[in-house]
Write a structure and sequence with these properties.
127 residues, alpha+beta, six-stranded antiparallel β-sheet, disordered N terminus
């Protein structure tokens, strides 16, 4: 149950960062949103449907994260996610989707909290 609340908190952090837009140059951010979204399966919430997924990165490049997110959003959230070798990927469990519509990956035994120095995450882009 505790990991579910952590996953939900991470998803909220990613969504809040995505909605906040770019930070001022003087502020230090926890992660950076990739300029281009990833296309994936349809995701619907509150009558709004999107095929776009926002990608957040911390000490990894968007060029590394985006192809993985494109693969991960098509995988079942009920099974082990198959991400980069040596990385652990987790899907957010508090969603109606059967797919990994939101989640994150990090090296080794990744956990949502505390977030490691190096990770990437994704969520549906509902803008």
């Amino acid at each position: 149950m505790r990991s579910a609340s952590y996953a939900l908190a991470f998803a909220a952090l990613v969504v809040a960062a995505a909605l906040a837009g770019p930070a001022p140059a003087t502020a230090r951010t926890l992660s950076a949103r990739c300029a281009a979204d990833v296309q994936g399966p349809a995701y619907t919430v509150a009558g709004h449907t999107t095929h776009r997924y926002a990608v957040e990165v911390e000490h990894v490049s968007c060029a590394f994260a985006r192809p993985w997110v494109a693969k991960l959003v098509k995988q079942s959230r009920f099974q082990r996610l198959h991400g980069p070798a040596g990385w652990t990927c987790l899907a957010v469990s508090k969603t109606r989707s059967r797919l990994a519509s939101a989640g994150g990956c990090g090296p080794g035994k990744f956990k949502f909290f505390p977030l490691p120095d190096k990770f990437f995450g994704w969520n549906p882009d509902l803008r």
